[in-house]
Amino acid sequence: MNNSVKRQNETMRYGPTNNGSGHNSSLRLENRWFTYNELEKITNKFQRVLGQGGFGKVYDGFLEDGTEVAVKVRTESSNQGDKEFLVEAQILTRIHHKNLVSMIGYCKDEKYMALVYEYMSEGTLQEHIAGKGNDGRYLTWKERLRIALESAQEA
Ligand SMILES: Nc1ncnc2c1ncn2[C@@H]1O[C@H](COP(=O)(O)OP(=O)(O)OP(=O)(O)O)[C@@H](O)[C@H]1O
Q1: Distance, CA of 78 to CA of 124 (rounded, Å)
Q2: Alpha-carbon distance 64 to 70, whole Å?
Q3: Which of 21, 61, 108, 119 qualifies as a cystine partner to 42, CB 3.0-4.6 A?
Q4: ipTM of the complex
Q5: Is the pTM of this model over 0.80?
Q6: Which of 49, 50, 55, 78 should be mutated for ligand 1, with most atoms under 8 A from CB?
Q7: In the chain, helix, strand, coil percent, each to 5?
């Protein structure tokens, strides 16, 4: 079994007893762990930017099996800290919902933090609400209500 396959099943605990990363939060993540070098490969050296959020830039990438992913890399100047980043990761590890983007994995070492998500080809909900989705139309109130109701229901 090669390293990357082994890592897919790895559970990493950030905590004083087993972090190895200098991070002292005790958040638990149960997704695939990526090295920064792997992310470089996946994103073809962070070539294509999909967008920018509070943590930093989000890059387009492809896993070994061809799955398209979005890689959110936390920049040092980010106005949201390590803790918030790991909280987002932890929530998405635990909650699986058809209306919520799935997290595939994460990268955390002394220098870099990144989250890897399934790629959302249709754009964000915010874009569709603002009429900036790929179809250029605004969501109707009926559609907005349905999305809100479905999001509040169990998966
Ligand atoms: N899974 C994804 N698939 C495709 N594009 C994405 C994905 N995640 C993020 N993006 C793109 O990157 C942009 C920034 O996303 P991000 O989640 O970092 O920010 P945000 O939700 O706008 O803000 P914040 O991080 O402050 O909550 C999005 O607006 C979108 O264009």
Answers
A1: 21
A2: 14
A3: 61
A4: 0.94
A5: no
A6: 50
A7: 30, 20, 50
The three-state (H, E, C) secondary structure of 78-136, written as one string = CCCCHHHHHHHHHHHHHCCCCCCCCEEEEEECCCCEEEEEECCCCCCHHHHHCCCCCCC
Going by C-beta distance under 8 Å and a sequence separation of 6 or more, which residues neighbour residue 95? Answer: none
Summarised one tens digit per residue, pLDDT across range 140-155 is 999 999 989 988 887 6
| Domain segments of the chain as ranges | 32-121, 123-154
Q: Are 12 and 29 in contact (CB under 8 A)?
A: yes
* 72 labeled binding residue: yes
* Ligand 1 midpoint to CA 1 (Å): 34
Question: Is the dihedral angle over the CA atoms 37, 40, 43, 44 positive or is it negative?
Answer: negative
**Residues flanking ligand 1, CB < 6 Å:** 50-55, 58, 70, 72, 101, 117, 119-120, 124
Rounded distance, CA 23 to CA 32, Å? 18
As its CATH architecture, domain 32-121 has 2-Layer Sandwich (3.30)
Strands 57-62 and 68-73: antiparallel
**Strand, coil or helix: 41:** helix
